[in-house]
Design a protein that fits this description.
- It is a single chain.
- With about 140 residues, the chain is mainly beta.
- The protein has one domain: Metal Binding Protein, Guanine Nucleotide Exchange Factor, Chain A.
- The chain has a seven-stranded mixed β-sheet with strand order 6-7-8-9-4-3-10.
- Strand 6 and strand 7 form a beta hairpin.
- The radius of gyration is 15 Å and the shape is globular.
- It binds zinc ion (ZN) (2 copies).
- The site of one zinc ion has 9 residues, from loops.
- Keywords: Lyase, Metal-binding, Zinc.
- InterPro entries: CENP-V/GFA, Mss4-like_sf.
């Protein structure tokens, strides 16, 4: 990221849940956009996989309500969702203040943001062998 980009705010992204209760902005470079088809992602989402992207934790701001956090790995990993509409929003590791995991689908412009295109399809064939495999 250049100084100019920082000054113009071009690396700021906004997002939120379906009902609008949870809102946030993230600032900074995209880290490791990927698909995950682990059992937790599939079970919680009701979908074969979830689309994750990391951002610097210091650039995260909750501009609406903060998600409700549920420990999927007690004491290790928590996942955040809207308590009203159930939208999946985020994940974080306890004790790690450097990265926040955001579900790309929670971002307002995920469908038109080339920086979010997944570069890893973690374990996708396990979850959905019928799905066309990219890459
Ligand atoms: Zn909501
Ligand atoms: Zn997963």
């Amino acid at each position: 990221m250049s100084e100019t980009e920082a000054a113009t705010g071009s690396d700021v992204r906004s997002g939120g849940c379906l009902c609008g209760k949870v809102r946030f902005t993230v600032t900074g470079p995209v880290d490791d956009p990927h698909i995950c088809a682990c059992k937790h992602c599939a079970k919680r989402s009701g979908s074969p996989f979830q689309w994750w992207v990391g951002f610097p934790m210091p650039g995260l701001e909750w501009t609406g309500a903060e998600p409700t956090w549920f420990d999927t790995h007690p004491g290790k990993t928590a996942r955040g969702f809207c308590p009203d509409c159930g939208s999946h929003i985020a994940a974080r590791d306890h004790g790690d203040d450097t990265v926040i995991g955001i579900l790309a689908t929670a971002l307002d412009h995920h469908d038109t943001d080339p920086a979010l295109v997944p570069t890893n399809l973690n374990r996708l064939p396990e979850a959905a062998p019928w799905l066309a495999q990219a890459g």
